[in-house]
Design goal:
The chain is mainly α. It is 72% helix and 0% strand. It has two domains: 3-89, Helix Hairpins (Orthogonal Bundle); 92-259, no CATH class. The protein has helices at 3-29, 34-45, 58-120, 125-129, 140-151, 164-173, 175-182, 191-209, 218-249, 251-259. It is elongated and about 90 Å long.
Length: 272
């Protein structure tokens, strides 16, 4: 939770406590009805003060003093923080929209190709192919079920099944592109995308630092398998999140994304 949201929630909590506590005190000490107590608290906090209701008991008067000293300040703070919070939410939505544009560029340049390569070597690809042919009729529940499947998928590809030199060259050619993505401050808004980029950079480094990628000991192949599966998992989850965003906001981009779905063996960019 960010600082602005936390402060806004604190103001709401304190404001509600002042209202509820003041109402209870006035109802028990002054004999106000529920409506009269609520009305009196609101006009007092809002500094209207019509004067048609007034406390007569010492405790009631002390309660009103407390409400004036604390409630008015909290009310003003709540109004100010409400404005700041809604401005922040609007700016955050704009930043996330820009971030999803960056994610789209990543998948266009590299992500979809890697998902196809990883999926071809996945021994359990059948179970996710049956679910990840996303359609226009998908609901939020469909996306949640797909998330659950990808979250707990085995991701058990083996590095020795790949042409590791080709995979290394593919990542190396796009190294400058990935570095430029990391220079964008919008990435700070989404931790999952940052983790994806870290996984891709680490895999690129692991493959690039070895003088040769054939005839490796099994322990090293196992190590590379872990790195590949980490990148595979982050890519798959990021792809599904991006599909959900496109479906909700950009139907024409979603249509193209589905025609190039890396999990659909029948996918084709040709509209039929």
């Amino acid at each position: 939770m960010n600082r602005i949201s936390f402060r806004f929630q604190i103001y709401i909590a304190v404001f509600l406590c002042v209202i509820i506590g003041g109402m209870l005190a006035l109802m028990f000490e002054e004999g106000f009805s529920f409506l009269d107590a609520f009305y009196f608290i609101i006009v007092t906090i809002a500094t209207v003060g019509y004067g048609d209701l007034a406390p007569v008991t010492p405790l009631g008067k002390m309660t009103v003093i407390f409400i004036i000293l604390l409630g008015v300040g909290v009310f003003i703070g709540l109004v100010a923080n409400s404005i700041e919070y809604f401005i922040y939410q609007r700016e955050r939505a704009d930043r996330l929209k820009k971030l999803n544009m960056i994610i789209g560029v990543l998948f266009s340049e590299l992500g979809v190709r890697l998902l196809k390569v990883f999926g071809e070597k996945d021994p359990d690809i059948g179970e996710i192919r049956a679910v990840l042919v996303v359609a226009d009729k998908w609901s939020e529940d469909d996306f949640r079920r797909a998330y659950g499947l990808l979250e707990y998928h085995s991701y058990a590809v083996k590095s020795q099944d790949f042409n590791l030199e080709r995979l290394r060259d593919c990542l190396k050619r796009r190294e400058d592109f990935m570095i430029r993505l990391l220079e964008n401050p919008e990435l700070l808004e989404q931790e999952a995308f940052t983790e994806l980029m870290q996984a891709l950079f680490h895999l690129n480094e692991e493959l690039g630092i070895r003088e040769r990628l054939t005839g490796l000991p099994q322990t090293d192949y196992n190590h590379l398998s872990v790195d590949i599966n980490r990148a595979y998992r982050h890519l798959a989850l990021a792809w599904l999140r991006y599909m959900q965003h496109l479906k909700a906001h950009y139907p024409y981009l979603f249509s193209l994304a589905m025609r190039t779905n890396p999990f659909d063996v029948n996918a084709s960019p040709i509209v039929r």
